Amino acid sequence: MNQDKYDHIPVAPEQCVIGFGTTLVVAPHADDESLGCGGVISLLRKYGQIVYILLLSDGTLSHPNSKAYPPEKLRDLREKELLAAAEIMRVPPENIIFCRYPDRNVPAKHTEGFDGAVKNIAKMLEIINPQSIFVPWRRDPHPDHQAAFQIIQATKISETKIYEYPIWLEELGVAGDEPTQAESTPFRLNISQVLHQKQEAIAQHRSQITDLISDDPEGFRLSQNMLSRFDIPYETFFIAK
Question: Measuring CA to CA, which residue among 93, 82, 98, 95 is closest to residue 33?
Fold first, then answer.
């Protein structure tokens, strides 16, 4: 996703988040909530809105060969990092929901477990009753991100506004992945006053941005180039037409 493509879109003032109401942020992996929505989450809490974070995957494939952090320990670490990030963004721990679907195997449409995932998450949504949901862009180039959108789309929530956020679109997107004018409208939000909060939240995901887990040479780590894409004073979302 080329940010310049959206430079002509006015940046909405931070106060507009008051109209978002109770909000659910769907994160396929621990760190997506901070990277894609750290600004909007911080602003929602600044203006007293209720925020929930739904973490879909267990995150255990970021360092699959680590002996120091076998799957269960890595899962617990990543969940603790999310809780630390949420605390910085002032989301209480009781508003964090852990689904623990297998990393890179979050149930997608036409796969085993999809209907069950939709049913379970639909029940959660009935309880939370969000007015707004933030979920990864439908063609964000990662299977778990696309599955997240498909699950939310299948819940058929009425009177709930869906905002789609990109994570890997600019880094890994190919022709056909970007939103078209026919299917969505880009929306940019001014997060300049809480950008420091967003960056501090991202920094809590040390397993993903540092050498904290040092015994897996093939382990995942966000590059500085990738991180710089999220160190800007606005966040871009897509609203389906």
Answer: 82
Tokens of 163: 């905002």
pTM of the model: 0.97
Instruction: Return the ∠ at Cα 183 (arms to 187 and 42), rounded to 5°.
Output: 25
Rounded distance between C-alpha atoms, residue 103 and residue 143, angstroms: 10
Give residue-wise pLDDT tens across range 17-70: 999 999 999 999 999 999 999 999 999 999 999 999 999 999 999 999 999 999
Beta bridge partners of 235: 189
Helix, strand, coil proportions of the chain in percent (round to 5)? 40, 20, 40
Angle at 50 between CA 205 and CA 162, to 5 degrees: 80
Q: What would the two tokens of residue 64 be?
A: 């699959």
> At a CB cut-off of 8 Å and minimum separation 6, what does 140 contact?
146, 149, 166, 167, 168, 169, 173, 177
Token code pair at residue 66: 């680590």
